[in-house]
User: Which sequence fits this backbone?
């Protein structure tokens, strides 16, 4: 996204990709990503999400391609759930249209879910489902059509900033740049060792369950969703492949740190069984045995908010890292922010709360 935003401004830009654009080895794999404005993680994300939604539209128009299925987002929780209240507040504070449904109304509107009597549901009509790999491919091709270069299968071995710019080294040669944008996800601390322990790669899993009636889980009638179940936030997307629904969860306390180059592809039995129980209990129209499982790594910070901004000690480095599960839905906006910072050293977007200086204070 940064490559596209820089190229559209006429900037001479070179991108390094250790695999190929749109690969499934990092946090942008897995066929779909939920987009939502209802944000229990904090109302300071709402202006960014609204701007990102516009940026997705700009990319779709320029590509051209449909990347965001605007099918809405449904959040389900117990009526006294604090996270649910925060999601409602995030929409109400900005005067955004939404519906809060009692369990009985939610059953009538969205019968694919099973509701407890004390459940409530929030419908965010601005939500939807993104296509991550395809979006990256289209943004990359668009950037290249505007003059950007991309070196595929070219891992960067080190980045060396100095007062006059940045040296980027690969196995075969080195390059000099005025500024470098570092957006390497779970591999961040390898290129920026000072962020070791700040951007922590953690393993997450994605799972798909077959639908007994796939048409009833299409995006026309089944929005992207999230619901709180005990200590988990369960989320999912409608049918994309014609037969299965993605249902996964985020633990409020993420699992241990992993090596993103050596992820165990096997889902632990206890995790799998917990997910099967959730599907059996709350999504009765799905067969509670996954037909596909995918593992990936994402970078988490200690406070759960990403690092977006200039390196406080090396202003020739623009950092976009540690996005802690918030990243892909905001990707085109963060690409614009990175381009702003790379060209002028500042941005009008309200990202100050994500500044890297909170962990890298000089």
Assistant:
């Amino acid at each position: 996204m940064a490559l596209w935003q820089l190229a559209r401004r006429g900037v001479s830009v070179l991108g390094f990709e250790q695999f190929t654009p749109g690969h499934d080895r990092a946090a942008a794999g897995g066929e779909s990503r939920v987009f939502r404005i209802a944000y229990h993680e904090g109302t300071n994300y709402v202006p960014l999400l609204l701007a990102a939604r516009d940026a997705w539209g700009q990319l779709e128009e320029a590509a051209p391609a449909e990347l965001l299925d605007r099918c809405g987002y449904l959040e389900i929780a117990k009526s006294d759930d604090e996270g649910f209240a925060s999601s409602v507040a995030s929409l109400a504070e900005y005067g955004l249209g939404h519906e809060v449904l009692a369990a009985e109304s939610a059953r009538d509107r969205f019968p694919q879910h099973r509701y407890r009597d004390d459940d409530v549901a929030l419908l965010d009509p601005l939500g939807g489902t993104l296509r991550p790999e395809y979006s990256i491919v289209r943004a990359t091709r668009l950037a290249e059509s505007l003059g950007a270069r991309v070196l595929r299968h070219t891992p960067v071995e080190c980045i060396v900033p100095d007062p006059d710019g940045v040296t980027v080294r690969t196995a075969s040669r080195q390059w000099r740049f005025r500024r470098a944008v570092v957006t390497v996800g779970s591999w961040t601390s390898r290129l920026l060792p000072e962020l070791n322990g700040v951007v922590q790669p953690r393993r997450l899993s994605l799972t798909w369950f077959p639908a007994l009636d796939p048409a009833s889980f299409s995006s026309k009638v089944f929005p992207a969703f999230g619901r709180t179940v005990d200590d988990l936030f369960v989320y999912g997307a409608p049918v994309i492949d014609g037969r299965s629904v993605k249902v996964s969860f985020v633990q409020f306390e993420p699992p241990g740190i992993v090596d993103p180059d050596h992820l165990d592809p096997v889902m632990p039995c206890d995790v799998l069984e917990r997910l099967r129980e959730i599907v059996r209990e709350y999504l009765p129209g799905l067969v509670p045995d996954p037909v596909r499982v995918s593992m990936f790594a994402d970078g988490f910070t200690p406070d759960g908010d990403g690092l977006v901004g200039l390196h406080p000690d090396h202003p020739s480095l623009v950092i976009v890292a540690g996005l802690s599960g918030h990243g892909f839905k905001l990707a085109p906006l963060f690409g614009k922010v990175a381009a702003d910072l790379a060209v002028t050293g500042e941005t009008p977007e309200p990202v100050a709360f994500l500044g890297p200086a909170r962990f890298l204070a000089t």
